[in-house]
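Narrative progress, year one. The postdoctoral researcher (J.K.) led the effort to move from monomer predictions toward full complexes, under supervision of the PI. The following entry was the first complex the group processed end to end, covering 670 residues in total.
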Amino acid sequence: MRVALLAHEQFPDRAKTAVGILRYADHDVVAVVDRATAGDYVREHIADVQDAPIVDSMAAVPDCDALVIGIAPIGGGFEDSWRPDVRRALARGCDIVAGLHYFLSDDEEFARLADEHGCELRDLRRPPADLSVAEGTASEVDATVVCTVGTDCSTGKMTASFELRNAARERGLDAAVVPTGQTGIAIADWGIVIDRVVADFAAGAVERLVHEAGDHDILFVEGQGALTHPAYSGVTLSILHGAQPDSLVLCHDAGRDAVHGYEDYPLLPVEQYADLYERIASPVHEASVDAGMLNTQDMAGDQARDAVDAYADALGVPATDPVRFDADEVIESVL
Amino acid sequence: MRVALLAHEQFPDRAKTAVGILRYADHDVVAVVDRATAGDYVREHIADVQDAPIVDSMAAVPDCDALVIGIAPIGGGFEDSWRPDVRRALARGCDIVAGLHYFLSDDEEFARLADEHGCELRDLRRPPADLSVAEGTASEVDATVVCTVGTDCSTGKMTASFELRNAARERGLDAAVVPTGQTGIAIADWGIVIDRVVADFAAGAVERLVHEAGDHDILFVEGQGALTHPAYSGVTLSILHGAQPDSLVLCHDAGRDAVHGYEDYPLLPVEQYADLYERIASPVHEASVDAGMLNTQDMAGDQARDAVDAYADALGVPATDPVRFDADEVIESVL
């Protein structure tokens, strides 16, 4: 699929979806649409991803199949300054892919244009209408199932899932990510945003994804939140019990000592998370924390290596920072 | 509030909501509407609840403020044979209260009649539209917060909550139940069906209920599901972390040895549930299992006492069957 990525005034640092697609998706990115950096190339801003020209509007984008909204403003609204680009993309017959809280398919103008030009408006945050409760059957799939879990939100679970997938593929395995959040879904072009699902069906939605993933050697289920998060722990546990993983990879943000946005809630020592995840998983399906992932982006290089080593020691399993170092260092222990 | 309870052909054994209201609600029940037992009195079918005449249709019901749908068929649909009673109730100016999956307020005829006669259609399963994520503040309320938790679904958490409330009231305390399921909500005339809430907002919805409950000495938060349930554990944990209880009461169905409807999943020894609930609660708010509730309805009397004693021994805290014996036996340990 050839895509353009809309990222006006946010590329690359606040364009998580756009950067994720450039880094991990199988899509061919024909252009990034950003009026602030137009004229540059992607490679001038981020290393180790596919390159593409940056253009100022959809008018300058080469032929493509879809325009992906590659940014998510706080609140998840649609900014009206993007409307001309979306309008033009639809007029050219492109599908629109968006992970906003505002559903493009509920927008009267876009719905009409999509209809006229035979395009699809794909709102990634809209859950399927036919979900149901889990039946407790995810472990019946042939694949090894690995779930990334965390000590908090935003600890790198999505990144870890794709890095582990790539490391498994380098070993010649047929590996896939089971995405449970909007960025992962935009990258893999498939998945369900679990936190938008009615609570009763959350585990069932994950179970369905694991079954739909089908015939692979190994699946990396993207976890969400944390088991001890004051607001999101229910989503975390629904994914853990719905996916019935064999193996867990614990993701932590180096130096973080309280729940992000809930500073009255200190984080526990990391080994206590490993213990809790294993204890709560086992009555449904036995799983062990077999690797650790540490996000060291705010550290200097030698500090980062020490922090990763200390993290591995605390957990008693191999650990890495998959972005700074390599997920290949830990892939053996989850296979 | 004077209410009539619709329970056609299901009273009393399959009319959980009707029986719950007769037993625990502050409502004045003016009649039960059941064409199968019409002519009888409630006292001829169930002991220790308020009495009322049973009549065959709404036409025979004395003056009242609301008609409550007191039964929930599998699937939660509305049966068309109830339509004449609902129609007549609306024509008389009564509100309709329903915990069905089918929303009466989406029914064209009922919506029109309610509008004409100035009545309210109250669909208890419809969550409020303005929910948000938890802020981690439930423990700021002045009340002692007790949460009923379970080894499985249908272990008596709702019943335990109301029995504990009554026992606390007998001690002269100002006690209230925080209902999280449709029957509890119909009884207390207040609450949110947490399993219908979008997963991200489930803990936030419980937190809001705890704050709304307001100024009481003690709150009994009705738990749902179980922490180890293959399908519903996310709802359970959202309630536990959203409510931030000080004390837990573990509810178990005597003799049950596998998850109901998921027979491949054996239940753990009861003391392991107590340990798990305490471990997973504590990073958000410290709580201890201070009492046990055992549902012994399928046992003979002497067997039941032995089973309750064994349950108390296993948990190391006082236990009772609140229906067969008395919740008063354990109320001290949660105050």
